[in-house]
Specification:
Layout (H helix, E strand, L loop, with lengths): L1 H20 L25 E9 L18 E2 L8 H18 L6 E13 L3 H4 L4 E12 L11 E4 L2 E3 L2 H9 L4 H18 L10 H6 L3
Parallel strand pairs: 1-3, 2-3
Antiparallel strand pairs: 3-4, 4-5, 4-6
Length: 215
């Protein structure tokens, strides 16, 4: 029985490592490859997320400047003034929990570790005029709950998406669609895509505004 368990664990590590690093490899064109020789993408393993841990490092800078584009790792205004890192952690934790809850429960228990690297929402000035981009970026890794061993290297996810601005933002708020609601639902979908799709999540192209949000 011990040998069987060891084999299963080795297979789990191998497949999870493949799944976590699949998006880091450059895409290969299949236009000139005959259909019969195209490799099949392995199905994701049936994981069961037992615990979610979110880290928002103290090293991330916070900006409270009411500019069109405040320079900082964290820009968040929809909660009252306070510990922005703690507020971001709460949003991420809720989103991860919501996303994982929609996944089928598998037989391989894991811990989902998430480290936020950027949470750049809109300032008041941008929110009610030109709008912009919600720049949401993080690393995640799956771990063995018993040993803490990581199943592969941490994977970087860029989950940026277009933010509402001006009248569109005002109209959305009147119906309860706040920045927090949109961000939470978006992140929940992103982690679902990452954990159940071998190709993971693909961020939309956001042009110049998206490029500015990397500064």
């Amino acid at each position: 029985m011990g040998e069987v368990v060891s084999v299963v664990r080795c297979m789990a590590v191998a497949f999870l490592s493949l799944g976590l690093t699949a998006c880091d490899s450059p895409p290969t064109s299949t236009r000139t490859v005959a259909p019969q020789v195209v490799a099949q993408v392995p199905a994701p393993l049936p994981i069961n997320v037992r615990e979610i841990r979110v880290l928002v490092p103290e090293a991330l800078s916070v900006s409270e400047a009411n500019l069109f584009y405040p320079v900082g790792d964290i820009v968040w205004r929809e909660d009252p003034p306070g510990d922005r890192r703690a507020q971001v952690r709460t949003i991420f934790a809720r989103a991860m929990k919501q996303g994982v809850a929609a996944l089928p429960k598998g037989s391989i228990p894991v811990i989902l570790d998430v480290q936020v690297t950027r949470f750049h929402a809109l300032s008041e000035k941008a929110r009610y005029t030109v709008g912009g981009v919600h720049a949401l970026q993080f690393y995640y890794v799956l771990r063995n709950p018993e040993t803490g061993e990581a199943y592969g290297a941490p994977k970087f996810v860029k989950a940026d998406f277009k933010a509402l601005g001006g009248q569109a933002a005002i109209d959305a708020e009147r119906t309860g669609i706040t920045q927090k609601k949109r961000i939470t639902e978006h992140l929940a979908q992103v982690i679902q895509d990452e954990l159940r799709d071998p190709d993971g999540y693909h961020a939309e192209a956001l042009g110049l505004i998206g490029a500015l949000n990397q500064l």
